[in-house]
Write a structure and sequence with these properties.
Elements lengths: L6 E6 L5 H10 L12 E3 L5 E6 L4 H6 L5 E5 H14 L6 E5 L5 E8 L14 E4 L2 H11 L4 E4 L15 E6 L3 H5 L2 E10 L1 E5 L6 H21 L1
Parallel strand pairs: 1-3, 1-4, 7-8, 7-9
Antiparallel strand pairs: 2-3, 4-11, 5-11, 6-9, 6-10
This protein binds adenosine-5'-triphosphate and zinc ion.
Zinc ion binds next to loops.
Amino acid sequence: MTTSNRLRIAIQKSGRLSKDSQQLLKSCGIKFNVNEQRLIAHADNMPIDLLRVRDDDIPGLVMDGVVDLGIIGENVLEEEQLERELIGKRAEVIKLRPLDFGACRLSLAVPTEFAYQDAASLEGLRIATSYPNLLRRFMQNKGISYQDCMLKGSVEVAPRAGLADGICDLVSTGATLEANGLYETEVIFRSMACLVQAPGELSPSKQALVDKIMSRVNGVVQARE
Ligand code: ATP
Ligand code: ZN
Protein backbone atom coordinates (compact mmCIF):
# COMPACT_ATOMS: atom_id res chain seq x y z
CA MET A 1 0.00 0.00 0.00
CA THR A 2 1.91 3.02 -1.21
CA THR A 3 -0.86 5.61 -1.08
CA SER A 4 -1.42 7.56 2.09
CA ASN A 5 -4.04 9.83 3.57
CA ARG A 6 -1.25 12.01 4.84
CA LEU A 7 0.16 14.65 2.53
CA ARG A 8 3.71 13.72 1.56
CA ILE A 9 6.24 16.48 0.98
CA ALA A 10 9.76 15.68 -0.28
CA ILE A 11 12.58 17.96 0.82
CA GLN A 12 16.36 17.73 0.56
CA LYS A 13 17.82 15.68 3.40
CA SER A 14 21.02 17.62 3.79
CA GLY A 15 22.46 20.27 1.56
CA ARG A 16 21.92 23.79 0.37
CA LEU A 17 18.12 23.62 0.31
CA SER A 18 17.48 21.66 3.53
CA LYS A 19 17.49 24.41 6.12
CA ASP A 20 15.44 26.85 4.06
CA SER A 21 12.95 24.14 3.09
CA GLN A 22 12.42 23.10 6.72
CA GLN A 23 12.23 26.71 7.83
CA LEU A 24 9.61 27.54 5.22
CA LEU A 25 7.40 24.62 6.29
CA LYS A 26 7.81 25.54 9.95
CA SER A 27 6.92 29.15 9.16
CA CYS A 28 3.72 27.79 7.61
CA GLY A 29 2.80 26.36 10.99
CA ILE A 30 3.71 22.73 10.27
CA LYS A 31 5.19 21.32 13.49
CA PHE A 32 7.78 18.57 13.09
CA ASN A 33 11.08 17.37 14.46
CA VAL A 34 13.71 15.96 12.17
CA ASN A 35 15.69 12.92 13.25
CA GLU A 36 18.87 12.92 11.14
CA GLN A 37 18.79 9.12 10.88
CA ARG A 38 15.21 8.98 9.65
CA LEU A 39 13.86 9.25 6.12
CA ILE A 40 10.42 10.38 7.28
CA ALA A 41 9.44 13.12 9.72
CA HIS A 42 5.78 13.13 10.79
CA ALA A 43 4.15 16.48 11.46
CA ASP A 44 2.53 16.66 14.93
CA ASN A 45 -0.32 19.02 14.13
CA MET A 46 -1.34 18.22 10.54
CA PRO A 47 -1.65 15.05 8.43
CA ILE A 48 1.69 15.68 6.72
CA ASP A 49 4.79 13.50 6.32
CA LEU A 50 8.12 14.95 5.25
CA LEU A 51 10.31 12.73 3.12
CA ARG A 52 13.98 13.63 3.46
CA VAL A 53 15.89 12.51 0.36
CA ARG A 54 18.70 13.44 -2.08
CA ASP A 55 17.63 16.49 -4.06
CA ASP A 56 18.15 14.60 -7.33
CA ASP A 57 15.43 12.13 -6.33
CA ILE A 58 12.77 14.77 -5.67
CA PRO A 59 11.62 15.56 -9.26
CA GLY A 60 11.11 11.87 -10.05
CA LEU A 61 9.24 11.23 -6.82
CA VAL A 62 6.87 14.10 -7.63
CA MET A 63 6.47 13.18 -11.33
CA ASP A 64 5.68 9.58 -10.40
CA GLY A 65 3.21 10.71 -7.71
CA VAL A 66 5.12 8.93 -4.93
CA VAL A 67 4.94 12.20 -3.01
CA ASP A 68 2.34 14.98 -3.35
CA LEU A 69 4.64 18.00 -3.08
CA GLY A 70 8.34 18.69 -3.36
CA ILE A 71 10.76 21.54 -2.82
CA ILE A 72 13.49 21.47 -5.44
CA GLY A 73 15.90 23.63 -7.43
CA GLU A 74 14.53 24.48 -10.88
CA ASN A 75 17.89 23.33 -12.27
CA VAL A 76 17.39 19.76 -11.02
CA LEU A 77 13.71 19.79 -12.01
CA GLU A 78 14.39 20.95 -15.57
CA GLU A 79 17.29 18.51 -15.99
CA GLU A 80 15.08 15.59 -14.91
CA GLN A 81 12.28 16.73 -17.23
CA LEU A 82 14.65 16.79 -20.21
CA GLU A 83 16.08 13.40 -19.21
CA ARG A 84 12.62 11.83 -18.99
CA GLU A 85 11.44 13.37 -22.26
CA LEU A 86 14.44 11.70 -23.88
CA ILE A 87 13.40 8.26 -22.67
CA GLY A 88 9.66 8.85 -23.13
CA LYS A 89 8.84 8.75 -19.43
CA ARG A 90 6.16 10.82 -17.73
CA ALA A 91 7.69 14.16 -16.77
CA GLU A 92 4.85 16.47 -15.73
CA VAL A 93 4.65 18.37 -12.48
CA ILE A 94 2.42 21.23 -11.37
CA LYS A 95 4.63 24.21 -10.58
CA LEU A 96 2.96 25.83 -7.60
CA ARG A 97 5.36 28.73 -7.11
CA PRO A 98 8.99 29.82 -7.12
CA LEU A 99 10.48 30.28 -3.65
CA ASP A 100 12.85 32.89 -2.30
CA PHE A 101 15.94 30.75 -1.74
CA GLY A 102 18.36 28.47 -3.58
CA ALA A 103 19.32 31.11 -6.13
CA CYS A 104 22.11 29.95 -8.44
CA ARG A 105 22.97 29.80 -12.10
CA LEU A 106 24.23 27.04 -14.35
CA SER A 107 27.14 28.52 -16.25
CA LEU A 108 29.88 27.68 -18.67
CA ALA A 109 33.37 28.32 -17.31
CA VAL A 110 36.84 27.85 -18.75
CA PRO A 111 40.42 28.06 -17.44
CA THR A 112 41.77 31.59 -16.96
CA GLU A 113 44.21 31.21 -19.87
CA PHE A 114 41.45 30.10 -22.31
CA ALA A 115 40.79 32.75 -24.99
CA TYR A 116 36.99 32.63 -24.89
CA GLN A 117 34.94 34.76 -27.27
CA ASP A 118 31.54 33.11 -27.25
CA ALA A 119 30.07 29.64 -26.84
CA ALA A 120 31.40 28.73 -30.30
CA SER A 121 34.89 28.88 -28.77
CA LEU A 122 33.97 25.52 -27.24
CA GLU A 123 33.27 23.85 -30.63
CA GLY A 124 34.58 20.29 -30.59
CA LEU A 125 35.96 20.61 -27.06
CA ARG A 126 35.14 18.53 -24.02
CA ILE A 127 32.86 19.98 -21.32
CA ALA A 128 32.47 18.47 -17.86
CA THR A 129 29.02 18.72 -16.27
CA SER A 130 26.43 17.11 -13.99
CA TYR A 131 23.71 18.66 -16.19
CA PRO A 132 24.15 16.96 -19.58
CA ASN A 133 20.59 17.69 -20.76
CA LEU A 134 20.55 21.41 -19.95
CA LEU A 135 23.99 21.74 -21.55
CA ARG A 136 22.90 19.84 -24.67
CA ARG A 137 19.80 22.01 -25.09
CA PHE A 138 21.86 25.20 -24.85
CA MET A 139 24.56 24.01 -27.25
CA GLN A 140 22.06 22.55 -29.73
CA ASN A 141 20.18 25.86 -29.85
CA LYS A 142 23.46 27.53 -30.76
CA GLY A 143 24.41 24.80 -33.23
CA ILE A 144 27.65 24.01 -31.43
CA SER A 145 28.95 20.46 -31.11
CA TYR A 146 31.07 19.41 -28.14
CA GLN A 147 32.16 16.28 -26.28
CA ASP A 148 30.64 15.07 -23.03
CA CYS A 149 32.38 14.52 -19.73
CA MET A 150 29.69 13.47 -17.28
CA LEU A 151 30.66 13.95 -13.64
CA LYS A 152 28.29 13.87 -10.66
CA GLY A 153 30.85 15.67 -8.49
CA SER A 154 34.22 17.47 -8.66
CA VAL A 155 33.22 19.09 -11.95
CA GLU A 156 35.28 22.18 -11.18
CA VAL A 157 38.55 20.24 -11.00
CA ALA A 158 38.06 18.48 -14.37
CA PRO A 159 39.97 21.02 -16.50
CA ARG A 160 42.99 21.09 -14.22
CA ALA A 161 42.95 17.31 -14.06
CA GLY A 162 43.08 17.23 -17.86
CA LEU A 163 39.65 15.60 -18.15
CA ALA A 164 37.87 18.47 -19.90
CA ASP A 165 38.51 21.82 -21.58
CA GLY A 166 35.70 23.62 -19.82
CA ILE A 167 32.84 23.02 -17.43
CA CYS A 168 29.14 23.68 -17.10
CA ASP A 169 28.37 23.92 -13.41
CA LEU A 170 26.30 25.69 -10.76
CA VAL A 171 27.63 29.02 -9.57
CA SER A 172 26.42 31.35 -6.88
CA THR A 173 29.33 33.61 -5.89
CA GLY A 174 31.99 32.38 -8.30
CA ALA A 175 34.48 31.77 -5.48
CA THR A 176 34.77 28.04 -6.27
CA LEU A 177 35.48 28.77 -9.92
CA GLU A 178 38.18 31.25 -9.01
CA ALA A 179 39.76 28.83 -6.54
CA ASN A 180 40.05 26.35 -9.39
CA GLY A 181 41.56 28.74 -11.94
CA LEU A 182 38.33 29.09 -13.92
CA TYR A 183 36.15 32.01 -14.98
CA GLU A 184 32.48 32.17 -15.84
CA THR A 185 31.79 32.91 -19.50
CA GLU A 186 28.09 32.30 -20.05
CA VAL A 187 24.98 31.74 -17.95
CA ILE A 188 22.91 28.97 -19.49
CA PHE A 189 20.14 28.62 -16.85
CA ARG A 190 19.04 30.71 -13.85
CA SER A 191 17.50 28.83 -10.96
CA MET A 192 15.65 29.21 -7.68
CA ALA A 193 14.08 26.65 -5.41
CA CYS A 194 10.43 26.01 -6.23
CA LEU A 195 7.42 24.21 -4.83
CA VAL A 196 5.97 21.55 -7.11
CA GLN A 197 3.00 19.22 -6.97
CA ALA A 198 2.45 15.78 -8.47
CA PRO A 199 0.35 15.69 -11.67
CA GLY A 200 -3.29 14.72 -11.43
CA GLU A 201 -5.98 15.40 -8.89
CA LEU A 202 -5.52 15.18 -5.15
CA SER A 203 -8.21 13.85 -2.85
CA PRO A 204 -10.48 16.67 -1.59
CA SER A 205 -8.92 16.56 1.89
CA LYS A 206 -5.36 16.70 0.53
CA GLN A 207 -6.33 19.48 -1.88
CA ALA A 208 -7.78 21.49 1.00
CA LEU A 209 -4.52 21.02 2.90
CA VAL A 210 -2.43 22.07 -0.12
CA ASP A 211 -4.62 25.19 -0.50
CA LYS A 212 -4.04 26.03 3.15
CA ILE A 213 -0.28 25.49 2.88
CA MET A 214 -0.09 27.53 -0.34
CA SER A 215 -1.88 30.49 1.16
CA ARG A 216 0.55 30.36 4.11
CA VAL A 217 3.60 29.98 1.83
CA ASN A 218 2.43 33.01 -0.14
CA GLY A 219 2.09 34.97 3.10
CA VAL A 220 5.48 33.89 4.45
CA VAL A 221 7.34 34.63 1.22
CA GLN A 222 5.58 37.97 0.77
CA ALA A 223 6.39 39.01 4.32
CA ARG A 224 10.09 38.32 3.68
CA GLU A 225 10.27 40.43 0.50
P1 ATP B 1 22.31 15.87 -2.49
O1 ATP B 1 23.16 15.14 -1.51
O2 ATP B 1 20.93 16.12 -1.95
O3 ATP B 1 22.29 15.25 -3.87
P2 ATP B 1 23.79 18.03 -3.79
O4 ATP B 1 25.23 18.03 -3.41
O5 ATP B 1 23.39 17.52 -5.11
O6 ATP B 1 22.96 17.32 -2.61
P3 ATP B 1 23.56 20.85 -3.00
O7 ATP B 1 24.97 21.25 -3.27
O8 ATP B 1 23.11 20.78 -1.60
O9 ATP B 1 23.17 19.49 -3.74
O10 ATP B 1 22.64 21.84 -3.83
C1 ATP B 1 21.25 21.68 -3.86
C2 ATP B 1 20.67 22.75 -4.74
O11 ATP B 1 20.95 24.05 -4.18
C3 ATP B 1 21.19 22.86 -6.16
O12 ATP B 1 20.64 21.90 -7.06
C4 ATP B 1 20.77 24.27 -6.53
O13 ATP B 1 19.42 24.31 -6.90
C5 ATP B 1 20.93 25.03 -5.21
N1 ATP B 1 22.15 25.88 -5.13
C6 ATP B 1 22.19 27.15 -4.73
N2 ATP B 1 23.44 27.66 -4.79
C7 ATP B 1 24.23 26.70 -5.23
C8 ATP B 1 25.63 26.60 -5.49
N3 ATP B 1 26.45 27.63 -5.33
N4 ATP B 1 26.12 25.45 -5.91
C9 ATP B 1 25.31 24.38 -6.05
N5 ATP B 1 23.97 24.41 -5.83
C10 ATP B 1 23.42 25.56 -5.43
ZN1 ZN C 1 22.09 16.23 -5.61
